[in-house]
Design goal:
Elements: H1 3-6, E1 13-16, H2 22-33, E2 37-42, H3 46-58, E3 63-67, H4 73-87, E4 92-95, H5 110-137, E5 149-154, H6 167-187, E6 192-199, H7 208-211, H8 214-221, H9 232-243, E7 254-257
Parallel strand pairs: 1-2, 1-4, 2-3, 4-5, 5-6, 6-7
Helix pairs in contact: 2-3, 2-9, 4-5, 5-6
The protein binds beta-D-glucopyranose (BGC).
Beta-D-glucopyranose (BGC) is lined by residues 100, 156-158, 200-201, 206-207, 210.
Protein name: Glucose 1-dehydrogenase
EC number: 1.1.1.47
Family: Belongs to the short-chain dehydrogenases/reductases (SDR) family.
Length: 271
């Protein structure tokens, strides 16, 4: 295989927000394996971000870590400036940083509501707006990619599936769905591709209580027709593909990587 096949993101530069752990870390590593240099963004876990950078460098890739809270406008602007200073240009931005602050609606505090909306929705807007401002200034370089830039939002099956006890999270993810489509429609003519990935239940720390232990796992598997929990690489593979020219005609869509979780598993029999 020549390099454009084995390393379809060769010489491209990527920023992955919230990539010191979980799905973000896997995406950072996968993009690097496919040839991209990666900025590993973190908010508070500098040590974990450094570990991700080290693992990328150990495999012969290029990466650096940069701290920034994605809900803070000037911090996001600083993060993009740092990427431009280090890389010269950015080709791929993955908005991934996300949190959960679960509570029944009656007890949900404004603080819990705001924390989730600020990071999971406003953070995506801020990252996407800076990406757009940068991509709009950059020349298309066909040797790198047919697009001027690619934005990937990591959404969730909960952009579609309502989630009792997690209304702040579901509201943010529903917002991401329309942010994806509206932004894609707005910027496609400038050859900027905006898409989203909606992961289902992926084995990470954020949902540990949903899969740790046989009882929790068997309950969870009832929601997944494919009958296995997702792994971070399932999502990372999809991100690498969406970022590549193999997906050049994929614009404004959400790719569900969920083992069929959105297929109304309760209807597999009856109905
Ligand atoms: C949430 C997880 C949850 C999964 C499926 C994700 O977006 O972060 O906690 O397990 O959706 O419900």
């Amino acid at each position: 295989m020549n390099d454009s096949h084995s390393k379809p993101l060769k010489d491209q530069n990527a920023l992955v927000t919230g990539s010191s752990s979980g799905i973000g870390a896997a995406i950072a590593r996968k993009l690097a394996q496919h040839g991209a240099a990666v900025c590993v963004n973190y908010r508070s876990s500098a040590d974990c971000a450094d570990d991700v950078v080290r693992s990328i460098v150990a495999e012969g890739g290029h990466a650096f870590a940069a701290g920034a809270d994605v809900s803070d406008e000037s911090a996001v602007q600083g993060l993009f400036s740092e990427c431009v200073a280090r890389f010269g240009r950015l080709d791929i931005v993955v908005a991934n940083a996300g949190i959960q602050r679960d509570a029944p609606l009656e007890q949900m505090t404004l603080e819990q509501w705001r924390a989730v909306i600020d990071v999971n929705l406003t953070g995506y807007f801020l990252s996407a707006r800076e990406a757009l401002r940068l991509f709009a200034k950059q020349e298309i370089n066909p040797a790198l990619s047919r697009a001027a830039g690619k934005i990937i939002f990591i959404s969730s099956v909960h952009e579609l599936i309502p989630w009792a006890g997690h209304a702040n999270y579901a509201a943010a993810k529903g917002g991401i769905m329309q942010l994806t489509k509206s932004m894609a429609q707005e910027v496609a003519s400038r050859r900027i591709r905006v898409n989203a990935i909606a992961p289902g239940a992926i084995r990470t720390d954020i949902n540990r209580q949903a899969w740790e232990g046989p009882d929790a796992l068997s309950k969870l598997l009832k929601l997944i027709p494919y009958n296995r929990i997702g792994e971070v690489d399932d999502v990372a593979e999809a991100a690498a593909w969406l970022a590549s020219d193999a997906a050049d005609y994929v614009v404004g869509t959400t790719l569900f990587v969920d083992g069929g979780m959105v297929l109304y598993p309760g209807f597999a029999s009856g109905g």
